Design the sequence.
């Protein structure tokens, strides 16, 4: 069966989803979609996903050198929809696209922050004009690089801590 909240496939023996804690016995009851939606928003509330941006400047001798960097918030997690890409508004000058790119991600929680490095195989799309976020089953998130018609997804990383023992 599938958790109605986080879409993860789960074993029927569990009374709650091992990933997100949503009760499995509510699956047949009326209004479960509404319940799942508000539970999901509640689990994701207060979480922000940011990506580290590097800025380049021209040195006096005309070379491009790395300047400052900063984390830019891509989205509030509770605005993401399952299995769809949320595109960040800004477009980029595509960097060198003949290799994988490493994206430094900051997951911000009310009391702490978690830092991850995610890899995306840009050569599969040759396009990284935009960045997006893809919310996958089980409250996992991937970065998307490309545009609406042609994009690649990075590795996945969990957005929430499991609430129950597996
Ligand atoms: Zn779940």
Sequence:
């Amino acid at each position: 069966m599938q958790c109605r909240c986080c879409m993860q496939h789960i074993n029927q023996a569990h009374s709650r989803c091992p990933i997100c804690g949503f009760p499995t016995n509510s699956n047949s009851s009326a209004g479960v979609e509404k319940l799942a939606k508000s539970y999901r928003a509640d689990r994701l509330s207060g979480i922000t996903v940011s990506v580290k941006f590097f800025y380049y400047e021209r040195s006096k001798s005309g070379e491009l050198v790395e300047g400052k960097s900063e984390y830019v918030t891509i989205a509030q997690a509770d605005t993401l929809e399952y299995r769809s890409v949320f595109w960040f508004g800004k477009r980029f000058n595509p960097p060198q696209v003949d290799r994988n790119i490493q994206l430094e991600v900051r997951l911000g929680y009310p009391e702490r922050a978690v830092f991850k490095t995610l890899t995306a195989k840009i050569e599969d799309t040759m396009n990284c004009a935009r960045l997006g976020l893809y919310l996958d089953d089980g409250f996992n998130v991937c970065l998307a690089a490309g545009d609406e018609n042609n994009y690649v997804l990075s590795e996945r990383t969990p957005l929430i801590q499991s609430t129950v023992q597996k």
